[in-house]
Amino acid sequence: MMRHDMRQLLNNDQALRSALRRLPRRNAPADMTTALRVVASRERERTLRRRSWKERVATWRERMHFKFENVMRPLALPVAGGVFSAAALFSMWVVPTYPVLAASNTDVPTQLSTEARVRGFSAIGHAAGDVLVEVEIDERGQMVDYRIVSPGYEADMTERRHLENLLVFTSYIPATSFGKPKPGKMRMWLSSSSIDVKG
Predict the structure, then answer these.
(1) Hey, where are the domains in the chain?
(2) Is 118 helix (H, G, I), strand (E, B) or coil?
(3) Are 96 and 138 in contact (CB under 8 A)?
């Protein structure tokens, strides 16, 4: 009975209108208008961006500018301060620890490596004339070979033998690397009055 009445009611337009009017009125939420406007604005912007390549590029540039202004600018000052502080601290550490070279450019021996040196001179005597000699020393502190560096130095067999005896009977301290003896070279300035050693 009720279904039949309902069908008749739905079929009758006039009755349907009057039934709908009798329903309680529903009001739209207060923020729906604003939400619909936001959605419409976004859709309009999306449609405008898809028009041409020129407009797409312009939109992309505007976005990048917006991101730079709102993201990069607040980070610029802290990043610059951090870089400046790191550079200042690094320079404060490097400058005092940087080795200052002497005016003579001589290498100062350290505990890590040392050059060959003379321990004691022979009592045989001095060289005849002035001569610069490069002496090669093995890891036991003994002379292996020598070479006359002075240009134009000429000596007869007696003077050369006297020079060789002087070099052979001189005692040497071998060069070291990390505390271990190693072969090395040194230069000696021999004269008739004195002997000067250069590493």
Answers:
(1) 33-89, 113-198
(2) strand
(3) no
